[in-house]
Amino acid sequence: MLVSAKDMLNKARDGKYAVGQFNINNLEWTKAILLTAQELNSPVILGVSEGAGKYMCGFNTVVGMTKGMIETLKITVPVALHLDHGTFEGAKACINAGFSSIMFDGSHLPFEENFAKTTALVNTCEVLGLSLEAEVGAIGGEEDGVIGKGECADPDECKKIADLGVTMLAAGIGNIHGKYPDNWEGLSFETLEKIKAKVGDMPLVLHGGTGIPADQIKKAISLGVAKINVNTECQLAFQEATRKYIEEGKDKVGKGFDPRKLLAPGFEAIKATVKEKMELFGSVGKA
Ligand code: 13P
Q: Domain map of the chain by residue range?
């Protein structure tokens, strides 16, 4: 069964650990993440961007695949299926398809519009028992080869959005998606502390989990971060393991070309990455 992320995040906030959101791209990704969560008895959030949803043949397919796996693999830990960085239209489509958690990312919109659209979704999600993530202060990343510096959110705007009654809040604190550049200044804990002081008990979300040093992750959790998103790191692990398999010529030995063999090292690499993150975030044994 898919569940809202509300209970798992409130428990994480109270227990001073974080639940990982791992983005999925296909069957291997989803299976690897679900099995690792079950093996480690950890709650987990599967993140689906609109692009990945489209790639996987739409949100209905994603819901069907995930629910089917949960049943067949006998997954009993809490699993939330979460739209990542959704548009308003995408959020409505995922609600209709049966997602259990939604992120509406209005951070790039004028604040008033972000506020109005988040308000509309708070009501819908509340009625349907879904968790809702909102974002303030856009999270940077690489776009067209230009690496943007992570923005820092305005704590007063964070409070206004948190007070709408969202389940969790993503706020820019100098984090960016993808690999961090060598001259990255690190997370702005000063901003995080100011946001936390304004939003009180609201679980905070740290995007761009790939490549943030362990000590900064731990400090962010101690200051109120209860959900951490990881995407690129699983992709890099998959790439490296698949490259090694082919470079070693294993695809040319026997039935090494069989996709079930060809994709196996990448699958194991995703599992290892997810395990490492769950241990770092402290969610092991917390299902
Ligand atoms: P990374 O790709 O940097 O891990 O970020 C993932 C993320 O924040 C998804 O919303």
A: 6-281
Q: Distances in Å between the alpha carbon of 121 and those of 50, 87, 115, 229, 284?
A: 17, 11, 10, 21, 31
Which residues are CB-contacts of 211 (< 8 A; sequence separation ≥ 6)?
Answer: 179, 180, 232, 233
Q: Provide the angle, in degrees to the nearest 10, between the axes of the packed helices 189-199 and 214-222.
A: 20
Cβ atoms of 129 and 167 closer than 8 Å: no
| Ligand 1 contacts CB of residue 227 (under 6 A) | no
Which residues are catalytically annotated?
84
For residues 239 and 111, give the distance between their C-alpha atoms in angstroms, rounded to a whole number: 38
Per-residue pLDDT reduced to its tens digit, 143-191? 444 555 678 999 999 999 999 999 999 999 999 999 998 889 999 999 9
84 touches ligand 1 (CB under 6 Å)? yes
Q: pLDDT per residue over 104-142, tens digit each?
A: 999 989 999 999 999 999 999 999 999 999 999 877 765
CA of 73 to the centre of ligand 1 (A): 26
Cα-to-centroid distance, 21 and ligand 1 (Å): 9
23 Cα: distance to centroid of ligand 1 (angstroms)? 8
What topology is assigned to 6-281 in CATH? Answer: TIM Barrel (3.20.20)
Determine contact, residues 171/134, Cβ cutoff 8 Å: no
- Burial letters for 22-56: b for 16+ Cβ neighbours within 10 Å, e otherwise? bbbbeebbbbbbbbbbbebebbbbbbbbbebbeeb
Instruction: Report whether pLDDT(64) > 80.
Output: yes
Per-residue model confidence as pLDDT tens digits over 243-282: 999 999 999 999 999 999 999 999 999 999 999 999 999 9
Q: What is the mean pLDDT of residues 205-230?
A: 97
* Token pair of 156 as six digits: 């007063």
